[in-house]
Amino acid sequence: xxxQQSPVKxxxxxxxxxxxxxxxxxxxxxxxxxxxDIAYDPAEVSSATVTDTLKWKGGICMIQLLRxxxxxxxxxxxxxxxxxxxxxxxxxxxxxxxxxxxxxRDTCYNGRxxxxxxxxxxxxEYTNSISSPPFSVSLFPHDDPSSNTPFFTASVAPLGxxxxxxPFSSKFTKYLGLSNVLLQPxxxxxxxxxxxxxxxxxxxxxxxxxxxxxxxxxxxxxxPGGGKKGDDGKDRKNWWPGLGRWHLGIxxxxxxxNLGPPDAVKV
Length: 267
Known about the structure:
This protein is mainly beta. It has three helices and 13 strands. The longest helix has 11 residues.
């Protein structure tokens, strides 16, 4: 799912979307430190607003693999990293998307412009269909079609031969310490100014996710070639430093997302 040529479509909030989602999770202590080379795309890793204003609190980290069957800008694929909670100087704390890749230009532009979501384009390649596990996905730089070295890989597998399904609503995740409000700092302008606009205000946005049918799955985070050493000297064999290979996750079938207009946050 790529669209490199069409002009950007403007789609202001609110957005109502439908997708298939796989959400892997693991817990991170604030004392473990935030590996910035993993938590951020290189374009945002040195952003002053991220470095100086937000304090990382740790918590439940989520890696999300999504395929949108419907959105105001059409179909696309997406990979999201939410590494727990971040706090403003006021003490207000919420989850934040720090790294995210998409397969389509329109959602890249609108995600940044509407909500400060730091979207960048990537090339997504799959083994098997993402509609149901098992499958693997690898992400490659979008501007290098010849590249055969992914910067992220994950595999999703069924938990067992038969597992029960259950309804899922993000309204209940607050009981797990997860806010359904995104707190997003302003973004620096990207290399492709047409689809990577910069922004100026802190924004927070409430989103709701619901699925009638969710199942538990396995996430395999092993990286090809054993991964690379990070800036901190730690290995990245399972992408995040010190992370184990296997993690439980949730598969959301025919999920619905409602993402409203943002509110400006004074800092």
